Amino acid sequence: MAAPMEVMLSTDASGMLWNVCIWDFHSGTALQTYKGGSSGPRGLCCLSGQFLMSAAIGKPIIYIWALQKKEQQQQRIVCPGVVSCLAASPDNTLCAAGIAEKIHIWQTCSGYQLSVLSHHYQTVTCLCFTDDGSHLVSGGEDNLVMVWYTASILQPDSKMKSCEPLFVWSKHALPITDVHCGIGGARSRVVSASHDQTCKLWDLATGQLLCNFVFDSPVCSVAMDMAEYHLFAGCSDGNIYQVNLFASPVQMERHISKNKESEEMESSVFRGHSKPVTCLSVSMDGTVLASGSQDNTACIWHVNSKQKIRTLSHKGAVTNVVFTPTPANLLDSRSKPTFPLQSFKRHLLSAESDGGRNMGGEIAVRVPDQESTVEDEDRTRERVLIREAVKQQQRSSTNKPNEPSRQQLEQELERLTQTNRLLFKAAADLASR
Amino acid sequence: MAKGGRKNKEKRKDFQKVKFKVGKKKPQADNFTVTTFKSQAIQIREQLKSGPVDADEPTTLKKKNIHDLLCHLNHYNVSIRQSSIAGMKELLSAHPSLISQHLAILIDSLSILMTDKEDAVRKAGISLLQLVLQATPADRVGPFFPVLSAHLTCAMTHLQEDIQLDSLAILDLMLASYPRLLTGRSQELLTVFVQLISRQRKQSVGWTEGELDGGELAIKPGSRISSHKWRQKVLQRLRQFLTALLEEYFIKHSRQADSAAESDNYTVKIQEHKETNAPIFAPGSHAHGYRDEFILSLTSSSSSSTSCQDFSEPDNLLGFVRSLVPLLLQCWMEVAPKSQGHSQAHLHSVAVEILDGVLSVILLLWRWMQSVCEEKCNFSCMTQLQKLYHKKFVSHLLPCFPYTSHDAPARAKRSGKATPMTVVNLNLSACEIMSYFMSRGDISVPWLRRIMAYVLETCVEGGSLSSGHVQSLLGVVRRLVKVLPSEESVSDILQAVFSLYESCHVLSAHRQAAMQCLDELLTTHGTKHPSSRSVDSLFIQSLPELIRTLGSVSSKALQILLRRAAQRQAEALTCIQKHLKSFVDPESGVLLKLSADLQVHIIHLIHHADPLDLDTLRSLATCCHDNRMSAENVAYLVNILSTRLLEVGVSPYVDRKLPFNSADFISFLFSVSIGSTQFELASSDGQDSTSQDVGKPRPLPSNLTSVSIATKAGRPWQHHSAIVKSVCLGYSLISSKQQMWDLVQTLVIKLLNSQKTITCYTAYAVLHAANYLTTGKTYWRKEALNKLTDCCLATLYKVVSDDVMGIGSSDWSEAIWEEAVDMLVASKPVLMEMMQRIHAYVTDLTDPEHVHHVAMVIVRLLQTQRLSAILAQITDSAMQAVNSIMNHHLATEGSRWVAELQYESSVVLNVKLQR
After folding, report:
1. N or C: which end of chain A has fewer CB within 10 A?
2. B260 shares contact with chain A (CB less than 8 Å)
């Protein structure tokens, strides 16, 4: 099977046919399905293309599948409460889950609970890591968006003071429905969507509000493309609005005509859903937009022409649509995950380590024993080159005592100047003759 | 010979002697000119005007115009100078417009007078300057200010003591009129000023470490610069100066903060029919400018030899403070009561004022330091300052700290009402200064306890403080709370602040300040101690009352309440629950009285109300029909209420209860959409039947359609359609369209049964809802079909007849026509029913107008492109309808509309008509 570059994951609320389905969004075929339970909104994430994690609706459970296996769900993690949203850091080391008004942070490979953040006053509705994992953005029903510095979350504080958020953005007037982090790590831009009919664009570095977008109906989901040319907002009236984050092109010529309106009728709305659009995702190249709605369909849209390319029908309200680069393990059923995923502990790490110090700091990592990929080859080549370079360096440093002394050099110089003079003289003779 | 003889003769003739004889008249000379002349008088009726400029020029009584006076202002002769000043004063007060015309030259010459050697001239010059400056706004003086301040500096550093003394009057003058301009040159002026009042005369004027205790307040025995009065004045001036400086500083900073907040205003409204572009980082997309002039000049950095230094550097400021504080302390010690030994009752009123002056100057210095440090994020200087003066201040300022307690009433009697105020001021500024020295470590220090006691007392006594005092009191409270270790003492303070909050007048600024402070404190400390919890609940319960005041306080109170509700505080939620009904009451409620942007806050409150009962919904619906509620807000309200349904729609697992009965909600939506209340409809019904205008088209008889449409001037049409749209969105969120239609159609039937006349808004809402919720497959109940046909026919008839009569207003008639046609296109049964009805009853029509208009309805329907295909399917019933009109006895052959009908029906229905 020729694998596409990118695949789309989707889940619905009913979970009748499957919990998570992987689609080839160009052809609309389901590549792979994973069964057992159903996933809640903003509760799906993919760990480095090896594991799928999904938070169940209404149950305090996180389901985990290893991507290469097609059978029933392989792992269930019981959490302290119903998980309202789930996010994994881009380097897959951390997993953040919103449980009621608290955010729990786990280390994925050890299962240690590293921190519990309780600054929200109501249920956390959405979590999002920046693309470098340096910051975590959370939005809640208490109208607040908070930004956390990941390093400070993980730092064990001596005074038992709870970790403070870096910023608390309180300009929304109603519950937050979605947040989206742009590209750029600590300097990226964050969009938050809320029931108060607005999306707000924030600057993560300064914490300033950059722009406020006002829509006609409550916004349920928001997304931007990779280049941040467009902002998409899925509203509860079933429309998806596109906002161009660039200035309108300056027209040097204008055609003046009577029906001026007709020119400007070029709309920026994706119409097609009949119920609230609850999730959005944009493909890596920014040409394809996926949307999931409560009308039990997920739609694939072409961004430039604003056409609906494909409708994928589901059995319940669509809760997640996510674009992801095709995981290698999806194609090869014999492959194994490169790291183990432990089930998450229920207590904080510090409390646990009081009992036994010996286990602290050791993390079991399964080293892959499969044949090397191209990347690995590159890396080994690089390593060889570095080693060579280091050797060269060492050799040159050992040669140092053999360097010609100053005297020798001076003699050499003298000799050369003499020869030069002789040459000049000969040339001058020749010329004068 | 003869020739020669003649020559000789001529020669001789030339030199012949003329003989004058006595008694004979002297012969006239050859070169005599007649010098006599004749003259005649010319009479001039009026003087020639000497020039257009001079004549209009106003003059003084001594006939001097402004140019003469300006020339003489700097004359070498004293008396001329003086007289010209007097003349100038006379002239300028009579013609103030001259000031702005000649401002440049006036200021130039007047500023020279600042350093005039003659006492009287100088004094007069200053008063003239005062006249000029008072008449000129600050932005006009701005460009000349460097000149003025340079001369002022000159005068302040002049050798002659008199000139120095008078320069202070000028400084006062400028402080009074242009505090902001003065602060721009504060570096030189402050330095010079401090030099003036102190006796320090150092060669290097930069603030160095050595000067720590070098200063000493200038006291020259016998000179006028030594008395208490003088000192008091100096302190006052210093205070004014620093206040102006700090104000300027805060304005600058708040403006920077504003510019951050200004991006709030960068709001983009997304429009459906247009591409939205929102360039975020494009150059000039939002230039929040700090529009202040910047003038390139050689001041601080390059010329360290001159006395000016940049006080925005904490180090420089530290130097300044260190040079000034010893002077102030000295001043303090001279008048301060010697601790313990004497009773405080000896405090003289002058002494109190001096003490007050000293303290407020110190306070200003500290505030300045703090803000400078905050700006630079470098608190080393602040800590250095704390360390330096901690002990000194504690030992000097605090020994007999609450300066009021003993003798306030006595003094109040002695010297009027002003004094107790200054004593309070004195105490508060002492508190505030010391609050800078508080830190978490040294909580057990006795002075801290004394301050806390004083703060508590003042808070409880409360009411009579001025706004500045309240601000500083609250500042002290905030700092105190940070320091206090035990929650118990914090709750004491909270209670005290609450009593202050209670004692203030509801609309006063104090109330607002206290409210904000309380809110801040309670959010962090509100739940930690039982007594502070009770304060919290009392505080929240007091908010609704504030909201009802409709002032600026009410929006703040609303925001606080909203924030608490968003944080799911039980107190706030119950409070909302309790008061919401009265807020949204259409008669007395606050919702309709607020401005549109504050209404939004109330709508947010509604979002938090949990059980939302029918009564509240009903009064909300009534509010929605009111014109004071903008259409955007109505749509927003509907949207927000509908979002409560959103989460329920996701999955059956989510255990979320709706705050309202969904049947109630549906009827709420419906009554919002129809644009007027049942009561209004009924009343308009009655009116229409009594007074039938002749000009208006008469409604169809009831066997054709049971309703008639009335026009109503309400809110604009687009707004109504927006509301209807969001209502339909609400319908679709509740359940599937099929189910919703079942519910809505009963409402429609009920409405149309009870009403004879509906407004065009209502008709539109009904039609739109029907179009939105039904599909081709929808099963139609007979009754609903009837009623919708009624509605459709009435609408079409109304539009056509308005059109024919030429009184249709285009915006709504077009929309409603479209909607009706959509209805007919989407549901064939309605079209069938309509045609059959026309066929059956048209013969009963007796009014030719009716027949004409019904025919025109058919014509226009036949002309509609979308409808033609469907009409072709039901040719029979359409034919019957057309035929019955054609055969009507009132349809005369010759009239135009009959021909039209004939033509259209033959084209669309492909049938030859026969009569």
Report:
1. C
2. yes
B411 assigned to some structural domain: no
Distance CA B848, CA B857 (A): 14
SS3 content of chain B, % helix, strand, coil (to 5): 65, 0, 30
| B646 and B679 in a common domain | no
All domains of chain A in start order, with CATH: 6-325 (2.130.10.10)
* Cα-only R_g, chain A: 30
Same domain, B639 and B691: no
User: In chain A, what is the straight-line distance between the N-terminal and C-terminal CA atoms, in Å?
Assistant: 86
Shared-domain flag, residues B816 and B789 = yes
State pLDDT tens for residues B664-718.
Answer: 888 888 888 877 665 555 555 444 443 444 445 566 666 666 677 776 666 677 7
Is pTM beyond 0.95? Reply is no
Among B256, B608, B643, which would you mutate to test the A interface (most chain A Cβ atoms within 10 Å of its Cβ)?
A: B643
Which of B740, B720, B734 lies closest to B642, judged by CA?
B734
- Residues 284-323, chain A, touching B (beta carbon < 8 A): 294, 316-317, 319
Scanning B178-227, the segments in alpha helix (DSSP H) are 179-184, 186-197
ipTM of this predicted complex? 0.71
Residues B724 and B621 in one domain: no
Residues from chain A that touch B266, judged by Cβ atoms under 8 A, are 210-212
Both structure tokens of B467: 């706004």
Which residues does chain B have within 8 Å of residue A217's beta carbon, measured at their own beta carbons?
639, 726, 729
Instruction: Please name which of B752, B869, B776, B877 lies closest in space to residue B827, comparing C-alpha atoms.
Output: B776
Interface contact A242, partner B, CB < 8 A: yes
Q: B408: pLDDT confidence band, cut at 50, 70 and 90?
A: very low
Q: Does B284 touch chain A (CB under 8 A)?
A: no
| B688 in the same domain as B648 | no
Helix then strand count (H, E) for chain A reads 6, 28
Contacting B residues, span 447-506, partner chain A, CB-CB under 8 Å: none
Interchain proximity A211–B600, CB inside 8 Å? no
Contact check, Cβ <8 Å, B282/A246: yes
pLDDT digits (tens, 9 = 90+) for B796-822: 888 887 777 766 566 677 778 888 888
Domain match, B576 and B646 both: yes
In contact, B868 and B862? CB cutoff 8 Å:
yes
Residue B685 belongs to domain spanning: 674-908
Are B628 and B761 part of one and the same domain? no
The residues, ordered by sequence, that sit 6+ positions from B655 with a Cβ below 8 Å of its Cβ are A58
Domain total of chain B = 3
Looking at the structure, do residues B553 and B616 belong to the same domain, yes or no?
Answer: yes
